Amino acid sequence: MNATLWRPELLTGEPSEAGLLRNFVDGAFVSSESTFAKLSPVTGQKIFDVCEADAATVDAAVTAARAALKGPWGRMSEQERSVILRRVADELERRFDDLVAAEVGDTGKSISQARTLDIPRGAANFRAFADFATTASTESYTTTLADGRRALNYAVRKPVGVVAIIVPWNLPLLLLTWKVAPALACGNTVVVKPSEETPSSATVLAEVMADAGVPAGVFNLVHGFGPSSAGEFLTKHPGVDAITFTGESATGSAIAKAAADGVKATSFELGGKNAGLIFADADLDAAVEGSVRSVFTNGGQVCLCTERLYVERPVYEEFCSRLAARASELTFGWPSDEATVNMPLISQQHREKVLGYYELARSEGAKFHAGGGVPTFGDARDNGCYVQPTVVTGLPADARTNTEEIFGPICHIAPFDTEEEAFVLANNSKYGLAATVWTRDVGRAHRAGAALEVGIVWVNTWFLRDLRTPFGGVKLSGIGREGGNHSLHFYSELTNVCVEL
Ligand code: NAD
Fold first, then answer.
1. What ipTM describes this predicted complex?
2. Any coiled-coil ranges, and where (predicted)?
3. Residue nearest to atom 38 of ligand 1 (CA)
4. What is the pLDDT of residue 12?
5. pLDDT tens track for 208-253
6. DSSP 3-state assignment of 352?
7. What pLDDT does residue 19 have?
8. Does residue 4 register a pLDDT over 60?
């Protein structure tokens, strides 16, 4: 087994010897010649050497996954598989501290967020999809032909086969298990590639799989990058039957091209440039606090985060000053401090991108109400990837600041005068993932649900998730829906059986 990941230094940022993270193929951890460094976003120090899977390692993982379809896993009933998946959830809870350390170490997110959101949701995904898979029905029809003959048609659910799962770094365990759990519940085997920025919690998950009794070859893990690395080797591998991907829209486009050659099924959860609409009739306290969450949670690094806020003119000035005041008071602390709210961006590269957008907003003529720079600490965090939570106004709807996904703690606020105008502004985007509407008008809430070109509309709330509901985006924000039965559709093939009676 891999060494335990729990090291207090991961939470405090104190120097320590970097650990080694390996690939997991056919039930065993395997090393590789090539490794890459995983740096702490809090202090910049190296916390792990990570074994990069080469083409041969990815091939071995896909081969093991294919063989496992014919092994004990393939012969189990849905009920037997779901018993194992519930054991995975139990084991994730037993390894809670390791997983918190892994997630906080890799991302610099606050320990309180990892404890209340990331890790519990990881375990919840396995229980939820164990339930869905064992209670799902399929359709059946009796058919009567003109000559009086009759037939019974019914659909049989079968696994798709080997599923490649490629995920980003922002909510690593949560987003990974959101796909691994339904894929396994439907009887598939998987090869997962976590982001190169967040290799740790996926490595703990590999240990959890083995300890929970998931047969060898069912869950395989390959570390590495995208192009010319493990990601591309996996998506182009002829032994992969389906690809499920969460990440940037441009990467989705590259993966779609790779998938086209093998006519592989794809499910894409991609980027966003989400709008929040605040109407004058809203509970303004709730709208301000809700917008603080929707803009700044996880350092603004959630695909569902709001980067464009539109506020009805009578409350526009008050909303801007209250949001800016709240942005300025969000606390910067060490991740191990329960009171910490802000977190660093994931890497220096991403920080340069976000700071580039702060500069772009400036050159486009934005007025800064909060932030706009980097915080200073006088300690090791000055080598980290922090930026200030930022609130800007004054830019036209077609400014790049308002049209491109920044994926950092920044929002632009603009006024509107009518409901119709608000919906037009919200829809003025090549993305269509989520929208948040703050209003006390019930009719307007439902009109927003119908009018907004997105996969998810939240009314008077944000990021409130029910795992049974359809999740996904329109336009550049994705293809397909996952969640509840929608996941079962993607991770299963249906065979129709027609029996003449
Ligand atoms: P990314 O697209 O750069 O990387 C995501 C994953 O794809 C990583 O594991 C990466 O190594 C891999 N990858 C990159 N190029 C590849 C290639 N050519 N072939 C195969 N794999 C490749 O995204 P990111 O920067 O890690 O994550 C941030 C993005 O993810 C944002 O755009 C965000 O909106 C999006 N996101 C979307 C959702 C959603 O549910 N819609 C959820 C979270 C994040």
1. 0.97
2. none
3. 303
4. 60
5. 999 999 999 999 999 999 999 999 999 999 999 999 999 999 999 9
6. helix
7. 86
8. no
Q: Is 404 helix (H, G, I), strand (E, B) or coil?
A: coil
Sheet of 162-166: strand order equals 28-30, 23-25, 219-221, 189-193, 162-166, 242-246, 265-269, 478-479
**Where do we find the tokens 């439907």?**
186
- Of the residues 121, 251, 350, 463, which should be mutated to test ligand 1's pocket, given the most ligand atoms within 8 Å of the CB? 251
Across the beta sheet with 390-393, the strand order is: 367-370, 390-393, 410-416, 306-312, 274-278, 434-438, 456-459
Ligand 1, pocket-test mutation among 174, 178, 246, most atoms within 8 A of CB: 246
Which run of H or E residues covers position 221?
strand 219-221
Looking at 103, 197, 269, 307, which residue is catalytic? 269
Whether the pTM exceeds 0.90: the reply is yes
Rounded Cα gap, residues 221 and 10, in angstroms: 22
Is 269 one of the catalytic residues? yes
Predicted confidence at residue 158, as pLDDT, reads 97
Residue ranges of the alpha helices (H) in 374-463?
A: 400-403, 419-427, 442-451
Q: Whose CA is nearest to atom 28 of ligand 1?
A: 247
Q: What residues does ligand 1 touch, defined as CB less than 6 Å away?
A: 166-170, 175, 193, 195-196, 225-227, 231-232, 235, 246-248, 251, 254-255, 269-272, 303, 405, 407, 433, 473, 478
Percent of the residues in the chain that have a pLDDT greater than 90, as a whole number: 96
Which tokens hold the place of 457? 């509309």
Q: Could you report the per-residue pLDDT of 331-373, keeping only the tens digit for each?
A: 999 999 999 999 999 999 999 999 999 999 999 999 999 999 9
